[in-house]
Amino acid sequence: MITVRMIRVEPEVAGGLGEGIDFDAARRPQLRGPLHYAFAGWLGDELVETAGFWIVTSELAGALERSGLTGFVLDEVVVSLEEGFLSSGRDPLAEDWRRLIPTGAGEEDLQLERTSTLLVSERAFELLRRHRIEHAQITWADQPAPLSGAMRTYLARRGG
Fold first, then answer.
1. Which residues pair with 55 in a beta bridge?
2. Per-residue DSSP letters for the chain?
3. Are 34 and 101 spatial neighbours (Cβ–Cβ below 8 Å)?
4. Residue 66, SS3?
5. Which residue from 77, 151, 72, 74 is spatially nearest to 119, judged by alpha carbons?
6. pLDDT band at 149 (very low <50, low <70, confident <90, very high)
7. Which residues does 125 contact at the CB level (< 8 Å), separation at least 6?
8. 70: closest CA among 35, 28, 101, 116?
């Protein structure tokens, strides 16, 4: 049996859930209908997330579709800009985005760790690396996830 070593990818968080979606954290699935992603800022990555939802640029979506990778579905997403949207200035916000829904298990290329962390195979990671994911935190899935800055601050204040 081949065991696929997975990589944890924690993408740039460039915004949050937009208005008008049918979202309820207590039900499964939590979201019914299209995702609305409201950009607050964007550093230029082609894979971004919020609250366990991922979106990709149409360019990355096309590469995923052509790749033969398994364990995902691409769906529609509504994109908007929050008032005061901030961009890196390097590139204008990509116009077309698709929702990336990890569905895999076992030996598939895209999976979820718990319910909100994206895991990808080395093969999938090679594809992602050919696109902009400069602000994503990357760790091997068999290693502990790094603590966020906020969690490190919280633990330091608690004396932990």
1. 48, 99
2. ---PPEEEEE-EE-EEEPTT-EE-TTSSSSEES-EEEEEEEE-S-SEEEETTEEEEEHHHHHHHHHHT--SEEEE-EEEEEEEEEEE-SSSPPPS-EEEEEE-B-TT-SEEEETTTEEEEEHHHHHHHHTS--TT-EEEETTSPPPPPHHHHHHHHHHT-
3. no
4. helix
5. 72
6. low
7. 7, 9, 138
8. 101
Provide the angle, in degrees to the nearest 10, between the axes of the packed helices 58-67 and 122-129: 140
User: What is the Rg, in whole angstroms, of the alpha carbon atoms belonging to the chain?
Assistant: 16
Q: How far from chain centre, in Å, is Cα 7?
A: 13
Span 18-69, pLDDT tens digits = 998 898 888 888 889 899 999 999 999 999 999 899 999 999 999 999 999 9
In the predicted model, is pLDDT for residue 126 greater than 90? yes
Whether 47 and 125 have beta carbons less than 8 Å apart is answered as no
For residue 1, the model assigns a pLDDT of 45
